[in-house]
């Protein structure tokens, strides 16, 4: 008797959709939030990369040939403006592209290349500008709930100083 009732329950399909939904819903919700968190992270990473690229390009164009753009502070501090451009997109400052990103986390450096033999077009000293940053990811918090390691956003971009155009 038990065998017959167990077999009839096994073949009964009423309510099977409810059982399937109950089993699959947690996995689908986890997948959906994980996808949203990854897309959020990649969007913020793209904003940071665009910012440091803009900053390096700006600083590469402001100084006349032969002048170190990282030390040029007259008539304005161009290095500080470049840091503002990286973070906000504006030379004078404004709202950060990514929350938690500050000008203090943007590093602007100028390295020199000896061009006294005129191997490259330009003066005897060529300046290479590098804008870089690294700061904690302002995530939505979903990865933290899953006990995944904290990530950081970082980017770097290098440009040759070509002087004003």
Describe what this molecule looks like in 3D:
The chain is α+β, with helices and mostly antiparallel strands. The protein has one domain (12-160). The chain is 44% helix and 18% strand. It has 4 helices and 3 strands. The protein has helices at residues 2-11, 16-62, 78-88, 142-145; strands at residues 106-114, 125-136, 152-160. Strands 1-2-3 form a 3-stranded antiparallel β-sheet, with helices on one face. Helix 2 runs antiparallel to helix 3 (78-88). It is elongated, with a radius of gyration of 27 Å. The chain starts with a helix and ends in a 5-residue tail after the last strand.
Record the SSE blueprint:
Layout: H1 2-11, H2 16-62, H3 78-88, E1 106-114, E2 125-136, H4 142-145, E3 152-160
Antiparallel strand pairs: 1-2, 2-3
Quickly count the helices. 4
State the major sheet: 3 strands, antiparallel
- Give the averaged pLDDT, no decimals: 85
The Rg value, from CA coordinates, equals 27 Å
Low-confidence parts, pLDDT < 50 over ≥5 residues? none
Q: Share of helix among residues?
A: 40-55%
Structural class: alpha+beta
Share of β-strand residues:
15-25%
Number of structurally distinct domains:
1
Question: Which keywords apply here?
Answer:
165 residues, alpha+beta, 3-stranded antiparallel β-sheet, 44% helix
Briefly summarize what is shown.
This protein has 165 residues and is α+β, with helices and mostly antiparallel strands.
């Amino acid at each position: 008797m038990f065998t017959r009732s167990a077999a009839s329950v096994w073949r009964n399909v009423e309510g099977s959709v409810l059982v399937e939904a109950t089993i699959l819903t947690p996995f689908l919700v986890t997948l959906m939030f994980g996808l949203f968190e990854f897309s959020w992270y990649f969007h913020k990473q793209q904003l940071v990369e665009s910012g440091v690229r803009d900053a390096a390009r700006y600083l590469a164009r402001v100084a006349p040939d032969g002048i170190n753009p990282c030390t040029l502070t007259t008539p304005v501090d161009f290095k500080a403006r470049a840091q503002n451009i990286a973070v906000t997109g504006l030379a004078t400052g404004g709202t950060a592209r990514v929350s938690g990103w500050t000008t203090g986390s943007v590093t602007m450096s100028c390295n020199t290349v000896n061009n006294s033999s005129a191997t490259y077009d330009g003066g005897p000293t060529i300046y290479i500008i590098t804008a870089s940053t690294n700061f904690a990811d302002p995530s939505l918090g979903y990865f933290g709930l899953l006990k995944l390691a904290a990530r950081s956003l970082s980017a770097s971009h290098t440009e040759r100083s070509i002087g004003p155009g």
